Amino acid sequence: MLHSLTLTELARAYRTGELRAVEVTRAFLERLEPGPVYRLVTAQRALSQAERADAMFAQGRDYGPLQGIPVALKDLMDTKGDVTAAGAKVFLRNPPAVRDCPAAARLDAAGAVFLGKTNMTELAFSGLGLNPHFGTPGNALDPARVPGGSSSGAGVAVASGLAAAAVGSDTGGSVRIPAAFGGLVGLKTTDGTVPTDGCVALSTTLDTLGPITHTVEDAWHLLRVLAGEVPTPFAPGDVKGLRLLAPSTVLQEGLETEVAAAFGRACERLIARGATVETCELPVLAEISGLYGRYGSFAALESLALYEDLLGREGANFDPRVAARILQGRSRTATDYIRLGYERRRLQREFWGACRGFDAVLAPTVAILPPKVTDLETDAAYYATNAAVLRNTTVFNILGGPAVSVPCGEMVGMMIAARPQQEALVLTVARALEA
After folding, report:
1. According to the model, what pLDDT value does residue 435 have?
2. Does 152 participate in catalysis according to the annotation?
3. Catalytic site residue 126?
């Protein structure tokens, strides 16, 4: 089926003449309608982009692997002529965007096809993926469970064959969590690698954009375009001889049985491929994990600055759980915010100093399996579960470098993280595990 083909497989089929972009785009559009997965389906633009891609192929103009590929965009990215809702119904009153955000413009220039804008947690402020305004998409592998957030619709679109690939955002895990819960690859990019201009902000310090895909190779191709780099073939290196650290502190604490077993098997597979995996305590992780408890989070403090006035006027029209998390920032001082930045930089230095001699760090992406939606009806259950889901991923947002989640079990992901600008390395390790 066309819908099950990966980005790389579609790209190959276009170049052999087996498939045409318009044919593929129409097949996807036939399955799409606004709802919990897509808030907006942009059929007219998608067909126009597909026609352009086919015309370029006919003229011998090849702009790279994304040419003609049907992709979904998280509904916090501006696309020309469309309203950007960011999961908030109050934003539906905003005028349509006058231009594509830079990341979307790069995709368009590479020949990608925009199927539409996918639903998300309001303002991207949760790792669970619930949205009371536009609906919560069921997990593609078990509809009774949460999809993971905040890029919920983006993850479900790819996992359900409603897009060949998607772009999500990641501030505390919002690309990697839906990828782990949906059996996909999700890459949190190095801070600043992909421009976030023209995107609705949660944290101006930590927001990143990144790919959600079926395979590691697909993620590489999408990354290159998003980062404004020339398309190049994915050529993963050998993991033989790599030293990988699997810290036990925080990242392996309190794991559900299935998660611990899947993570252990994944480490064994990397060892079988020639890597060295070492487990040890790393006390600095406890400091990193406790950073927000001491000073507040970047997301709460910065979103308060962005949206406090709007919440004051429209509070009744917001998800009360999201509003409550934002308003937590009111209890913090300006000096808390300044110290948060100072401490982040100190902890980055200490962490990577403690990892000297290791190439990358391994951890379960999420400590628990995706919970059932019905188990989150009380606020207490929601907040506790959200914290558990975000615990491991948030560590690497604080650290600022790339981190990729790759499937290692049913609804379980292994996270591979490294120093800033080492996307190729983490994808190489992920490919070894995927293989």
Report:
1. 82
2. no
3. no
